[in-house]
Design goal:
By secondary structure, the chain is an alpha/beta fold. The protein folds into two domains: about 220 residues, 3-Layer(aba) Sandwich (Rossmann fold), CATH 3.40.50; about 50 residues, no CATH class. Helices cover about 40% and strands about 25% of the residues. It has a six-stranded mixed beta sheet with strand order 6-7-8-3-9-10, sandwiched between helices. A four-stranded antiparallel beta sheet has the order 2-1-4-5, with helices on one face. A two-stranded parallel sheet has the order 11-12. Strand 7, helix 6 and strand 8 form a beta-alpha-beta unit. The chain is globular, with a radius of gyration of 21 Å.
Length: about 300
């Protein structure tokens, strides 16, 4: 278990974390959500000692984290951090040099690096230049860096940001696989679809404080905190998007016709198809309730 107890942190005069309490367990995916500036990334950076709280403490398996060089080295073997931008993390020229760097410096078996590449689907990429990888491949390589250290916890900042649907799906599969392997996974994200697919426990932050903690998602609170999307449905913003399988337009329809069209569209969305609903915000809230009833 990794936890923070009443931690406070500021950048200069700007307080970012204000008495924040947080806990994550192994074999679970803990999702941290909130607006930009809520303190999500700052919290993550405390979990492996990149930041030190001004007040309060971080604990790993009940033991208070120390900040001397040796203690931080041991902490980072157990709590691996994956940055939002993989270019901030990847330092080696080739895939193999990159994934083997951490285990080699920690005195670990390099078989860990081979297994990590296989787990993320990059086996056979060893001689590839990191600079020639796609964005999704770089994301997976940065996760392989973390897995290669055989940590207890893998901490990820916005792991699906900027990815297309196949890239998104591959990250979801990886996160669920890490949970099955007994790793604790901590994710900071704005993406409600990701949260609903992988999350076991949810924290919402607002202005440096926890405003919600639970084992389910509070959709109304998520909306207030600026979290994108609704579970089970893809909302397309543009009526000119030709990739949408069905456009639902209620202009001039009677109430029974509207209801019939809506139910058909919701069922399509529930099956994973893209559906554009041209309607008002209040109607979307009703659709959300229908989706929740289908779970």
């Amino acid at each position: 278990m990794i936890e923070t107890r009443d931690i406070w942190f500021s950048y200069g005069d700007r307080e970012v974390l204000k008495g924040l309490n947080f806990m994550a367990r192994q074999s679970e995916v803990t999702v941290v959500m909130g607006k930009n500036g809520a303190g999500k990334t700052t919290l993550l950076l405390h979990l492996n000692g990149l930041l030190r709280p001004k007040k309060g403490e971080v604990r790993l398996n009940g033991v208070r984290v120390s900040y001397d060089k040796r203690a931080l080295f041991e902490l980072r073997k157990k709590v691996a951090l994956v940055f939002q931008n993989p270019d901030d993390q990847i330092i080696a020229p080739t895939v193999w040099e990159e994934v083997a760097f951490g285990p080699a410096n920690a005195g670990l078996n390099l078989e860990n690096a081979k297994r990590a590449l296989k787990l993320v689907g990059l086996e056979g990429y060893e001689e590839r230049l990191c600079s020639q990888l796609s964005g999704g491949e770089k994301k997976r390589l940065s996760i392989a860096d973390a897995i290669a250290m055989d940590p207890d916890f893998v901490v990820m900042d916005e792991p699906t940001a900027g990815l297309d649907q196949p890239g998104f799906d591959s990250i979801v599969e990886l996160i669920l696989m890490l949970r099955e392997l007994g790793k604790g996974v901590v994710i900071a994200t704005h993406d409600l679809e990701l949260a609903t697919k992988v999350g076991d426990r949810f924290y919402y932050l607002d202005a440096g404080r926890v405003v919600y903690e639970g084992e389910s998602i509070d959709y109304r609170l998520a909306k207030r905190l600026g979290i994108r999307g609704f579970a089970g449905m893809i909302m397309i913003a543009s009526t000119t998007d030709t990739s949408v399988e069905q456009i639902v337009n209620f202009n001039g329809d009677s109430e029974p016709e509207i209801l019939e069209k809506t139910l058909k569209a919701v069922l399509k969305a529930y099956r994973g198809e893209s559906v554009l609903l041209k309607t008002g915000e209040g109607f979307i809230e009703g659709i959300r309730r229908i989706l929740e009833g289908l779970k």
